[in-house]
Amino acid sequence: MIEALKSEEVINKVGGKFKLTALLQRRLVELMQGSKPLVERRRGWTDLEVAIQEVLEDKIAIDYENCDIPTPAELEK
């Protein structure tokens, strides 16, 4: 699962490595505080692997409408 971080797919989904890192950090805190995973946790998965899978399945994302962060599409212009 950590191999997914080497893929450009997961990085491009949120608009860059730094945004991905921030999103994963926030979600990891939520999971460690007891939030239920939004994907099925497979045997042996860590919270980080769960958070990565949630990004890949579009279960979590950055809320671009309610923050001042430019969307990936705006960055491409």
Alpha-beta classification: mainly alpha
Number of helices: 4
**How many separate structural domains?**
1
Rg, please?
Answer: 13 Å
H and E string: HHHH
Total beta strand runs: 0
Percent of residues in beta strands?
under 5%
User: What does the overall shape look like?
Assistant: globular
Summarize the SSE layout with pairings.
Blueprint: H1 8-14, H2 17-32, H3 47-56, H4 72-76
Brief descriptors of the model:
mainly alpha; 77 residues
Task: Please tell me about this protein's structure.
With 77 residues, the chain is mostly helical. The protein has one domain. It is built from four helices and no strands. The chain has helices at residues 8-14, 17-32, 47-56, 72-76. Helix 1 (8-14) crosses helix 2 and helix 2 (17-32) packs across helix 3 (47-56). The longest helix is centred in the first third of the chain and has 16 residues, at 17-32. The radius of gyration is 13 Å and the shape is globular. The mean pLDDT is 89.
